[in-house]
Structure formats: C-alpha cells, structure tokens
Amino acid sequence: MRYVIALDAALRLFRDRATPAPGTRLVAPALLRSQAVAYLYAQARRGQIDRTEARAQLDHMRALNIRLLGDRVLQAAAWDVAERLGWNDTFAAEYVALTRLQADALVTLDLSLAEAARTLVPVASWDQMMSVPPV
Questions:
Q1: 105-107 and 2-5: which strand pairing?
Q2: Are strands 123-124 and 25-29 parallel, antiparallel or unpaired?
Q3: What is the pTM of this model?
Q4: Is the confidence at residue 132, as pLDDT, over 80?
Q5: HSE value, Cβ hemisphere, 13 Å, CA-based, for 2
Q6: Looking at the domain assignment, is residue 135 inside a domain?
C-alpha cells in the first residue's frame, strides 16, 4: 500500500522511531520536510524536547525514505481541493491532493482533517498503516 502521511502522523513516526509495515510506501508533499523541521525546532526552542532529540527525530525522518513531491500538478490539485473544501490555505490540501494523485489512502491523526478528506479520498488509520495487510 502507498500512503500519504500527514504531518501529525509523520511526527508520531519520528517521535516513536516507528517504521510502517513491510511493503508500505510513504509519500508526502515536499512541504512535510519544512513543516517537520519547523515543528521540532519550535519544540526544542520552547524546551519541550532537547536539541539532540529533535535532531534524532529528523534523522529518523530521513531514514524512512518518504517520497516527497511538490510539482505544479500537485500545487494545482491542492488549490482545487482547498477551494472545494472551503479552506483558507492549501497546506492540508496538498496532503489530500497528493493522495488523489499518488496514493491509496491518507493517514492522519487529525479527526477533522480525516472527516473533510474522506469526502475526496480514502482515509486509513494509523493501525492500518502499521500492520501487515492480510494475504
């Protein structure tokens, strides 16, 4: 299965040093890298985690080999998704649009994002992404 992993689910993977089930392929907008770095930097700056831990989480992000995409087609699709869902920006829309273009389902821990996204794309749970699919 190929999953688009939203920022919240990605941050959980990084924090827990988790690895999805074998055969699972992760995809995300290129925006994920900048969002993750900014989030972990802010956490370290506020003293919620130390710098070493933040860097270890970023190292795990890099080790997961998440395919990051961000071309014109994705940007145009994100614009359309944001417009259709009435969102004020295209950040979350990039995750939904990428799911439409490149993946089997979106994984997010955010219930409101999952509910909105479900009107356009399949949404999978954390447990589905982490478990080996039946043969």
A1: parallel
A2: unpaired
A3: 0.94
A4: no
A5: 13
A6: no
